[in-house]
Amino acid sequence: MYNDKALHSGELEILSHFEKQDIKGSYELRNFIAHDYEGVDFTIVEAVIEERLPVILENTKKILDS
């Protein structure tokens, strides 16, 4: 899972700035799209992106500015 990879690659400090639900959701969404592309409901994907991406973007900007 993402936690194990993050621990081994030294990314845990960066990931600590994001909400766990955003990290987990991004990871799971990527896997779902990659492995079941034909079953993806893009209206749901769009809604998730519109709702959560601004939060993730804001956190990313804070990290880059610090």
Q: How would you describe the overall organization of this protein?
A:
- With 66 residues, the chain is mainly α.
- It has one domain (2-65).
- Helix content is 79%, strand content 0%.
- It has helices at residues 2-9, 12-15, 20-35, 42-65.
- The protein is globular, with a radius of gyration of 13 Å.
- The N and C termini lie far apart (28 Å).
Which short descriptors sum up this protein?
66 residues; mainly alpha; globular
Topology record:
Blueprint: H1 2-9, H2 12-15, H3 20-35, H4 42-65
Span of the ends, CA to CA? 28 Å
- Average pLDDT across residues? 80
List SSEs in N-to-C order. HHHH
Strand % is under 5%
- How many separate helices? 4
What can be said about the biggest beta sheet?
A: none
Shape type: globular
Q: Level of helix content?
A: over 70%
The secondary-structure class comes to mainly alpha
Instruction: List segments where confidence is low: pLDDT < 50 over at least 5 consecutive residues.
Output: none
Spatial extent as radius of gyration: 13 Å
Query: How many strand segments?
Result: 0
Domain unit count: 1
